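Field log, afternoon session.

UNIT: design team B
ACTIVITY: writing a sequence onto a fixed backbone
BACKBONE:
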């Protein structure tokens, strides 16, 4: 599994735009606001990597949805990267999911607060070597 695939998996919950955004406000939880987001991924001993991404209203709704909608979004994004979702747990602002990619097992644990998110992604490679990355994201403005 390459770093690009890992990074894409980390921001999968932010970047997903494949599911229907017709969630009623009574069902939705505002975990993520649309707008321009900056994400920083840290994995020791490597230097931090920072990127910016415009999150659409539809992509934000896929993170703000119910369990079924969020699982469908994660499944879709993982399938694009050749990965398989093993489990999805949602507890208010916290979304935790496990997946496998090319024999590597990964657990992502992200907590959202509307205009920020943070969490970890731990990957156990075939052969037992494990690595943990920290991801922090913040909404910096409306999209240009």
């Amino acid at each position: 599994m390459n770093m690009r695939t890992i990074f894409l998996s980390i921001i999968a919950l932010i970047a997903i735009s494949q599911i229907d955004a017709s969630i009623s406000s009574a069902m939705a939880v505002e975990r993520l606001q649309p707008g321009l987001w900056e994400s920083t991924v840290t994995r020791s001993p490597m230097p931090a990597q920072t990127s910016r991404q415009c999150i659409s209203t539809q992509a934000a709704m896929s993170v703000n949805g119910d369990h079924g909608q969020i699982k469908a979004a994660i499944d879709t994004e993982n399938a694009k990267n050749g990965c398989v979702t093993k489990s999805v747990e949602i507890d208010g602002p916290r979304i935790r999911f496990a997946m496998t990619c090319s024999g590597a097992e990964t657990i992502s644990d992200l907590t959202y607060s509307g205009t920020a998110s943070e969490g970890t992604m731990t990957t156990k490679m075939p052969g037992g070597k494990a690595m943990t990355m920290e991801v922090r994201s913040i909404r910096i403005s409306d999209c240009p």
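LOG NOTE: Confidence is low (pLDDT under 50) at residues 12-27.
NEXT ACTIVITY: expression trials, pending approval
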